[in-house]
Amino acid sequence: MEEDDAVVVPIDGALDLHTFAPREVREVVEAYLEACRERGILEVRIIHGKGTGALRRSVHALLGRIPEVVDFRPAGMGSGGWGATIVTLKP
Question: What global pTM score does this model have?
Answer without folding.
Answer: 0.88
